[in-house]
Amino acid sequence: MASRVRPYAWISGAALVLTVVAGGAAPVGAVETGPFGWPLRPRPTVERRFDKPERNWLPGHRGVDLAATEGQPVLAAGDGIVVFAGTVAGKPVVSIDHEGGLRTTYEPVQAQVKVGTRISRGTPIGSLGAGHEGCPVPACLHWGVRRESSIHSRREYIDPLGLLHEVPVRLKPLKPAL
């Protein structure tokens, strides 16, 4: 006698797999994909998150603060061209233009690159300086991103964490959870 499979029996199996992948197993790491990655290695702790102001001139936090150590190498988050390496308001800063009108900014970073240099994602651009206003740990990298717009619209600050395309790596349990 031939066994008969219910037409939609696969749905319960798929639902089980989705449940396990979506939340049943703890992540053991992440694989970076896409054109941008973390500007620090190993992956840093985010000490202060992006807080976009309602208007560009109002107070806010136009980037993220990443915990690090003084002197730690800072890496280019993506391929681009160095457009600034110098001091702004007494702080050492490096800025990189990327495709799509994006500009990433890193501070306080003592530059090891020169303006006009074409760099690849993961290339060291400088070393982290001590302190950063508002950072609760001894050294933080302030990483910011803005989208350069056309003549008809203004610059827009965006959350740098939104550039990261990380695929969580999850372990599938050997036996289904009850």
From TrEMBL:
Keyword annotations: Signal
Superkingdom, natural source: Bacteria
Span of domain M23ase beta-sheet core: 60-149
One GO MF term: metalloendopeptidase activity
Pfam entry (one): Peptidase_M23
Keyword presence, rRNA-binding: no
Keyword match Signal: yes
Protein name (database record): M23 family metallopeptidase
